[in-house]
Amino acid sequence: MSLLNTLNDDMKTAMKAKDKETLTVIRMLKASLQNEKIKIGRELNDEEELTILAREMKQRRDSLTEFEKAGRDDLVEKAKSEITIVEKYLPEQLTLDEIKNIVSQAIQQTGATSPKEFGKVMGVVMPQVKGKADGNQVNAVVKELLNN
């Protein structure tokens, strides 16, 4: 079943349950997917859908960080619940050890020896963890392992 079909089914369920928050998030996700579909002029494949979901998750995590800095507890809770809803549609997230393993393999593969080769390593790692790990977490692991 495609992501769009899943979102439609979940949207109906949220409507019946009168769950306005879930409904709002699902509508945003659906709109993002449909906008991208219109933009490229064809049906989205699984990887493209995953990219859009990852982008939506990143936006919400960035918002959460900003709300926390500003001390907006009301918006922090809203952002956290939106993140929880979006997570349902993403693949299972990688653990820190799994990320370190992937990064170590990428460092060996690229032959990177210094932090100057950060971009080269990230270029190999990111396609492997797309949608399965937070980019900031991957970034931190790459920096840590290149500095050792």
TrEMBL record:
Gene3D superfamilies referenced in this protein's UniProt entry, alphabetically: 1.10.10.410, Uncharacterised protein YqeY/AIM41 PF09424, N-terminal domain
Cleaved signal peptide residues: none
Domain of life: Bacteria
SUPFAM superfamilies referenced in this protein's UniProt entry, alphabetically: GatB/YqeY motif
A Pfam family this chain is assigned to: YqeY
Protein name: GatB/YqeY domain-containing protein
